[in-house]
Design a protein that fits this description.
This is GNAT family acetyltransferase. One of its GO terms (molecular function) is acyltransferase activity, transferring groups other than amino-acyl groups. With about 200 residues, this protein is α+β, with helices and mostly antiparallel strands. It folds into two domains: about 140 residues, 3-Layer(aba) Sandwich (Aminopeptidase); about 45 residues, no CATH class. It has an eight-stranded mixed β-sheet with strand order 1-2-3-4-5-8-6-7. The protein starts with a strand and ends in a 7-residue tail after the last strand.
């Protein structure tokens, strides 16, 4: 298995890997048809085995503190995409991708990483096992059906919202969980990197 920088020719494999890895998670409907690009500089890695993309990691990092990250106190990097193909999970590929990304961040003088993920226990456990600490959380709320008209109104005549995706950061989380059918905790994780570069 080879871990290397993402190349444009990897896009289809990147998309397939991401879709399959998200299929049985809280992000099952977060489907992309094109690979994301970033406003700020980024580290974009893939793990490749037998010509197939089996893992991926994208980190957008800051030239100016506070332009991408919300949990970092200095210049930080935000993990936007981290995925391992289901046939290759539990083999340490995610940790290898993270280690390579951390090495690259350190050479850039960046020693903080931020990531946000929903409430899949095994995913949250992976972040904790790899040195991240949960710092914040909010609720990711999906509103559908008749409930949409109860909570959301359009200012345009004859335009009726049918699906709404919302964030809730208030103090009545229990009420939100009881009111809506699909609600996820979205957890913010932070990791401080050691300044010493790996040899």
């Amino acid at each position: 298995m080879l871990i290397r920088n993402y190349q444009d020719a990897d896009e289809e494999g990147w998309l397939r890997c991401r879709i399959l890895s998200f299929l049985h998670t809280a992000y099952f409907d977060n489907v992309l048809q094109k690979k994301e690009t970033y406003t700020n500089p980024s580290i974009e890695l893939v793990a490749v085995e037998s010509g197939q993309v089996v893992g991926l990691l994208d980190i957008e990092y800051e030239d100016v503190s506070g332009t991408v990250c919300t949990l970092c106190s200095g210049r930080g990097g935000m993990i936007w995409n981290l995925a391992v193909h289901p046939d290759y999970q539990r083999k340490g590929i995610g940790a290898l991708l993270l280690a390579e990304a951390e090495r690259k961040l350190k050479t850039l003088g960046i020693f903080e990483i931020e990531a946000w993920t929903r409430d899949d226990q095994w995913v949250n456990g992976w972040y904790q096992k790899n040195g991240f600490t949960q710092m914040e959380s909010y609720l990711h709320v999906f509103i559908t059906g008749e409930k949409v008209s109860n909570f959301v109104q359009s200012s345009i005549s004859n335009l009726e919202p049918v699906v709404v995706e919302a964030h809730y950061s208030g103090n009545e989380k229990e009420k939100i969980w009881k009111t809506f059918d699909r609600v996820h905790d979205c957890n913010g994780y932070y990791k401080q990197l050691t300044p010493a570069l790996d040899n």
